[in-house]
User: What shape does this take?
Amino acid sequence: MRPVTAHAGGTGEAGRVGRAGIVAPDLLEGWIEGYGPELRRHLTRMLPSEADTDDLLQEVWVRAMRKPPEPGSNVRAWLYRVATNAALDRLATDGRRCCALVGRRLELAPDPASAPDEALGSLSPAARFRVREKVATLPPKQREAVWLRWVEGRDYEAIAARLDCSKASARANVYNGMKRLRVELLDVWNEENGQ
Amino acid sequence: MTGDGCTYCEDDVLAYVAGELAAEADLEMSVHLGDCVECRESAADFKALQPMISECCRDEALRWHTFASPFGRMFVAATSKGVARLTWRALGEEEFLDWVGEQHPGRPLIRDPEALADVEREVTEYFRGDRAEFDMDVDLSVLGAFERHVLEELTEAIRFGQVIPYSELAKRIGKPKAARAVGNAVGANPVPIVVPCHRVVRLDGSLGGYGGGIEYKERLLEIEGREDLLKAG
Assistant: This one.
């Protein structure tokens, strides 16, 4: 990853959280006032519909109130991250790409974090098999690296130990596996939709 | 995968989705995703991929492991239900994985020595003569109902040091005329040693066949104290 310079104003006084888990109403209001307009522009750029923008911006504030950023963290970066994540999930439901496979799942379970078991099974068995098949046919090191990272949630150090390679190589195997899966699942989607 | 004038590559997007960037770089990528269609699309895909992989594969993977044994390199593979394959006949890792892959198409194979440490321990103890019963589940789901029935009955009824003729096993499962089919079922055993197909012999006391090689059947019966059968055979 190349070095990236920080945006100015990210960690100003108004951008600090007082104590973990507690957001004073005036602090939240300050965020809405200070960052609301630019977040709205950001979401508008990311999403095809204005209605989605309003929805997601509300989600961001609700999230900021219930589960605020850690004290001392960069609030602007945090808000952008939450908004961007919400927008990416919304994009996944627009049905045009490989993530459309999982998009169907997201439509059925809008909050996957709260209902992982319900979310299970909402992909068709055929789709699940195709995904599994693609994972199964990755080159062995990529398959194991992707598996350890994304199914078992191991860190690169643990993956490196298991694969008997360097941390950099463990990471490269995860990344290359993910890139390959993306391309292959796009093919699956295109096949199933006759394109 | 970069748009016009975009200086990021797919790896940068992946690092972002994986949450591996420092706050400043993370913010810069968030902002960038508002501007760059291509990076945005790959980010949406990668973000969707992670839970998809997990959901589709979590319970479906086969774990495998290999360890040294008196018979040579032992290979073992297990599903979430139990040990599905045990063999010392594979020439190497690749051949073993091919075999298992053919039997279980579309299921990711993950090397997992930790998950299979108990299997290695029990098999090693058995070879040392320190174990008469295996305390592990087996998954015989690749077999048909008849074969499964035969092997389950065999495992249940014929214990360490005992043997049974093919025809007797056929009677036990209520198919006295199916001795040959029983022989085939025993020969199809994907988990030898643990499912004790080496304890099935001919009515005349000779050893009969063994998929893993007859000399191994002899050695297993020796471990179980049945040298008497070797002389008779």
